[in-house]
Every structure is written in C-alpha cells, then in structure tokens.
Design goal:
The chain is an alpha/beta fold. It is built from 10 helices and 8 strands. β2, α5 and β3 form a beta-alpha-beta unit. α4 packs parallel to α8.
C-alpha cells in the first residue's frame, strides 16, 4: 500500500479511495462500486468538495423528516458501509431508525459480510438478510427487502441510490430522502428530498441536525418538511455549479 503524506493536496480524497479499494478487496464493495465512487468524486469536485448551503438546508430538513417518521429506515449498500458505517449506525440510534442492507449486486455472501461489518461497528440490529418482501414493481435484487424494514417503512433514507428504486418506493407511498452527489440523476429528481453532498459529510451533518431539532415542536418539523421544494433546490444547485465553473478561470 502506498503511504499518502498528510501534506498531499488531495489527501482526503486519496484516503477515501483507499478505503473503498480495501472494502472492495474484502468483498464489501462491488467492483462497479468503484466506478460509482468515481462518478461521485467528479460531482464532488464540481461543488468544491464541501457542503454547499443547499445541501446543509436539505440535511436539516432530512433530520426533521426522520424525527417525524413513525417507522424510518436507513438503507445501506456496499459503498455506504465502506465510507460511513459508524455514522449510519449513530444516526440510526439517535433518531431512532432501522438499518437495512439492500444490494443491487446482491449475493448472500455480500449481505452477510456487510451485516457483520455493521455489527463489528456495534450496530445492534441490521435488517436485510431475511428478504421476505419485495418492493412493488422492482424486479432487480435491490427490490428485495425485509417486511419489518423498508417494506413497512414510512420514511426511507437512501444514500447512493438508483433511480428506479427511488421511483418504486415513492409509488408505494413512502417518503424518500436520497444522498447523491449527482444533481442530474433520476434519483435526485425523484426523491422527496435530495441531499447533494458526499455521504461522508452528509451523514455527520444529519446527525448534527437531529441533535439540534430533537426537542423541536412536531408542528414546526412538519412545516419544514411540507414546505421543502426539491426541484427549486436542484435548480439552485445547477445554477451554483455553473456560476462556480464560470468564475474559476
Ligand atoms: O453495493 P451495491 O451492490 O448495492 O452496488 C452499489 C452501486 C454503487 C454499484 C450501485 O448502486 C450503482 O451502480 O450506483 P449508481 O447508479 O452508479 O449511482 C451511484 C450514485 O451515487 C451516482 O450518482 C454518484 O454520483 C453517487 N455517489 C457516488 N459516491 C458518492 C455518491 N453520492 C454521495 N456520496 C458519495 N460518496
């Protein structure tokens, strides 16, 4: 393994790549997860590799949504466990919400490995192994879910999503919050709330907002969620990126 000096201008990005690479070698991340990570990196570059104000606001409203939910579920895949296992567990504990592993490239071996990894990080209960239900009209493996998990959830937080599951979850009447660095993705457009931020920054920020909003009046939380306009936010992000690019050179 190459030692990355802390003084390297791309230290954080290179360390994150190492994490994803190691997790792939352990069988947690699927090979194509590396490609998805690269796409995420490119969009992160465009927003300046930091939480932009529109994402901060979305993270705050996401916290409000999780706090008003009756049965919220955080759905994780290989990349999310590789990059933010501890943080997802902490978020699930403080809301409280359920944690479920759902995979696009599903194998029983990967499901077991990922649940084991989350348990190593002190997750108490992880759904996803029984896969005794299916998201309606979703034929691929990420449609498999747990009856007591996503299938019966009212709010679902989906870091690194694919558009068709997001659409199918919404069609089942669920409120979907997505974390996706790509503001152009189908997921970004379909979700009720889209957080255009890196999962490594987004989850700690949602934790921060859950702590701040924990004792807030439920009516205020409901108002925050109801008044969120996702398409307006996506337009603002798109304008932010083009202005930023135009001012760079
Ligand atoms: O673990 P599995 O089997 O469920 O497979 C997961 C992958 C990631 C392979 C699968 O979900 C996939 O192919 O995803 P996509 O369709 O490439 O979408 C991934 C999206 O996540 C892209 O729009 C990326 O921009 C975005 N993304 C990648 N890394 C991050 C990210 N968004 C936030 N934070 C990241 N670190």
């Amino acid at each position: 393994m190459v030692e990355i000096p802390k003084s390297h201008p791309r230290y954080l990005s290179l360390k994150t790549r190492e994490k994803i690479k190691k997790a792939m070698k352990k069988g947690l991340v699927h090979e194509t997860g590396l490609i998805a990570h690269g796409r995420g990196e490119a969009f992160d570059y465009l927003i300046g590799e930091k939480t932009i104000p529109f994402a901060e606001e979305a993270e705050k409203v996401c916290a409000a949504a999780l706090l008003i939910a009756k049965n919220p579920v955080i759905s994780v895949n290989g990349n999310v466990v590789a990059l933010a296992a501890k943080e997802c567990i902490e978020l699930a504990e403080i809301v409280p919400a359920k944690l479920e592993v759902n995979l696009f490239h599903r194998t029983e071996k990967r499901i077991k490995l990922l649940i084991l990894e989350l348990k190593k990080h002190k997750a108490k209960k992880v759904y996803g192994a029984s896969a005794d239900a299916r998201i309606i009209n979703l034929e691929h493996s990420r449609g498999l879910c747990d009856k007591k998990g996503i299938y019966s959830a009212d709010f679902v937080l989906v870091p690194l999503e694919d558009g068709d599951r997001c659409e199918a979850l919404k069609a089942m009447g669920k409120f979907v919050i997505a974390i996706d660095l790509n503001p152009l993705s189908r997921t970004a457009k379909y979700a009720n709330i889209t957080i255009i931020d890196n999962v490594t920054r987004a989850i700690p920020n949602i934790i921060k907002w859950v702590k701040i909003l924990k004792n807030e009046d439920i009516k205020n939380l409901e108002y925050m969620v109801k008044s969120w306009n996702n398409i307006k936010m996506l337009k603002e992000v798109s304008s932010f990126i083009s202005k930023r690019l135009n001012s760079l050179f």
